[in-house]
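Students often ask why we bother predicting the structure of a whole assembly rather than each chain alone. The short answer is interfaces. A chain on its own may look different once its partners are present, and contacts between molecules only exist in the joint model. In this exercise we take two input lines together and write out one structure for the complete complex. Read the inputs first and try to guess which parts will touch.
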Amino acid sequence: MKQHPLCTDTEHAENVLELPIPAGLKQEWMALENRRRFLGRAGKVLGWAAMASLMGNRGASGDAHAADMPGAQGPPSPAELKLPHFAPKAKRAIYLFMSGAPPQIDLWDYKPNLAALYDKDLPDSVRGGQQLTGMTAGQARFPIAPSHWAFKRYGKTGTWVSDLLQNTGKLVDDLTIIKTLNTDAINHEPAIMLMNTGNMNPGKPCLGSWLSYGLGSMNDNLPTFMVLQTKVNPKENNQPVSSRLWSSGFLSSEYAGVGLRSGGDPVLFLTDPNGVDREVRRKMLDAVEQINRQTYEELGDPETNARIAQYEMAYRMQASVPELADLSKEPQSTWDLYGEDAKEPGSFAYNCLMARRMAERGVRFTQVYKRGWDVHTNVTGTLPILCQEVDRACYALVTDLKQRGLLDDTLVVWGGEFGRTVYSQGGLTADNYGRDHHPRCFTGWMAGGGARPGITYGETDEYSYNVAKDPVTVRDYNATILHCLGIDHNKLIYRSQGLDQKLTGPVPANVVQGLLA
Amino acid sequence: MMNGKELLASANRLLEKLRKTRAAGQVKELIAVADRLLPKSELTRAVWLASLGFSVVLLLLPLIVKLDGRPHADWEQFLGRFHPLAVHLPIGFLVLVPLLELAGFYRPALREAASFVLGLSFVCSLGAVMLGFLLAFGGGSTGAVVTRHMWGGIALTIGVLVCLLARPFWESDAVALVYPWLLTCVLLVLMYTAHQGGTLTHGASYLVEYLPAPVKHLLRLGDSAQAAPGSFYAKHIHPILDSNCVSCHGPASTKGGLRLDSYSQLMRGGKDGAVVVAGNAGNSLLLHRVTLAPSDKQFMPAEGKPPLKPEEIAWLTAWIQQGASPTATKLAGIAIEEAPEELPIKPVGDYSALMPEIVQMAQGQGAKLVPVSHNPSDGLILNTVDIAPTFNDAQLAALMKFAPYIVEAELGRTAVTNASLDTLAKFSNLRALHLEGTAVTGDGIQKLAELSQLTYLNLSGTKVTAAAAAQIGSLKNLRHVYLYNTPAQPAATAAAMQPIARKTE
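Now the answer. The structure tokens for the assembled complex follow.
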């Protein structure tokens, strides 16, 4: 590297002495250089001394706040966490996240009596002084909007399901339907954070990251936790989802969800550029790893190790992802089941099929995001579009897992971040209405490993407004999901900011025994 | 704050006032009593005032030093734990007092002793209260029963003190009735406080737990009968009530005073009386209401909830008709097809000695043995997913050392063939076997019949024929068999098919 002799970059001082310049100048440079170096170093040393005294005797470890927990030299291994705490029913999970909040009254929570109350005001006693969102708080009236759709009974259990979900309805004998989920948040961002991470504020690890951290990988060639986003349908009211929903929070970033793109190459830049073969790529990665190891030894930042692991994973994914995304060997029966939509990358049906393929290949946790459920207006126009995208694909996924023998040890979870109001947002007409956010009750379902099939858990009041029996809080729900995967939610912890952090947070949570097989 | 003399002076002024208002005819008698009762000498007055002050202090103590639910100093708890021991002393003394007073009619000497015993019981009560307070405060106890017991103890101590003060007037025949009534009240407070203490130590149901059932029923006390787990009630009746009735007839909302969330509540009935008459379905209100026409105002479940299913009504009828038993497991004429129960899991031996090798395998490139859980007796899972295309019969055979500990073999999409069935037949604790997408054709599948624990067999996407699939029938404990996309179960029809589920004998 060319260096100007009077360059003040002290790191390259040695080079100066080798330059063909007069000896006197060199001596002058040396004096100057030493003084500079002395002052520079002195400043740093003082800083380090102050730092050391501030950190007490814990400064030696790279991750100071984690120094006194097991595995201070890296993340605690499953052996140290004693995981799984007991024999799990489910080895893996697929979470179909319906972002935007599906209206429970139009899909699952059958309230035939509401038809007679059309356009009547919701009694104040039901609302009980609840604070509403800014979108309806100013409304003069809260007219009851009965569901536009008829319901039918399905399966041996005779469970009522909306005509919008005629395929999912066929699954009811395999589903665990929970009508009494309830949340503390009334707006999308905090509510979706709460569902995913157990906390409304960003910065906590999500369910998938906790599973990754606690249970580890079943497959060296694919990430433990993968995220599939469904392509946005412009006819729907889409709320943003962001990577902090699959963030690892204070856990090492190797536990974060790995997203596959919803169109084109599932992973960008995964294919080697022309002229670079596997061998060259391998050598390059080995060299980068060496440099990263030096960096780690110098600075002790555990994120450096996470980066090394991620480069290695990316290298292995160069081989495994094309195989994962190659649907050419799927038999015709797959397309008969999922429908032609599944051939289009980024559709919900495609993502469901991918989720099944990931389950087969040992991906621990797959989260599929489907946006657009935020039906503040025009429910009768939008909901059929949403259900058409989702209904058959959900049926196909559960059926496919079942016929292939995967449903025995795979837990499938379906649901959003809250429910929607029984009263209409905006004007109520004979054939249309809108529904606002409703945190007090909403419906979700589970199927497969560990969940009790063919039951409906909990009951709501006659307005689908309050829980009448057996409420399930978000933390109870997450505790139950962890239980299905062999985890005691109170024991899956990570010390951060002086607390034993856990997915279910500091408020006591209970595994809902009634949901378990 | 007023000192003793000022207090005394103000008490005297009060007394003067009372005397001056003597004119009022109705209070005349009362004043006369008060005149006799109220202390005349400086000494007795001091005693009364001291007692008053003492009582106030005792009453204020729990308000100043609050029971905050947090444990405090060890010495407090240490002393406090003598409370259950010390507390019986004042009880004994106090019960002795009325006996001595009564016996005094025959032997006056005994009555003389009563005063002394009463004094003793006061001193001991005070000690017991102090120890009790230390126990509650030091141990961090709180709650309604603790609070009731505490106030009971304080009230009792003050009551005994007042008895002690009132007794001389009774003895000198100045006031005849105050002391006996006071003593009776104190004894009642004693019983109340002692019962609260007993509840704290033994639990609420201790006293009446073994009360004869008819008396209990008469008194409407507690859960007289518990339904046995596994009984017809627990398995079939309770779920019907729970899913159809309890949201309105439960602890949260108890319409018509009727609760149906437990057997005893069901049998107790509601405001309209019993809803179940054992042995008489026709007279049972419960059945009557659910079998009305759904349009009837009295029809249950109300509020447009779906009616009970015919078979549910049939079960309820049969159960009530045959005695509404909390324990019977079978009913005549009712056969309910039940899903086959999962086998209880058989623990495997401890593989800890092989752990170094297992860890080494986990770090290597080959197959891995993954613990099912932290508990070694849950066994190991054979995981081959990373090397599936190259994992073959020989590699499987090389794992024989681990065979007794492997409960699940994930061999999907590996290169194993029918030859591996011989090896797998020796995996004596195998519960789940994945062979999907392999070249296995099912020839010799009956060799797996030796595996008594095997409940799951996945042969999806293999070349298993209908003939070989028929052999699977010899594997007794299999619950979950998957033959999707095989010659035995072509994919085209598979979507509509259920996995084969078999009942156990």
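Check your guess against this: Chain B touches chain A at residues 243, 246-248, 250, 252-253, 303-304, 306, 309, 345, 370, 372-375, 378, 383, 385-386, 412, 432, 434, 436, 456, 458, 460-461, 480, 482, 484-485, 491-492, 494-495, 497, 499 (CB under 8 Å).
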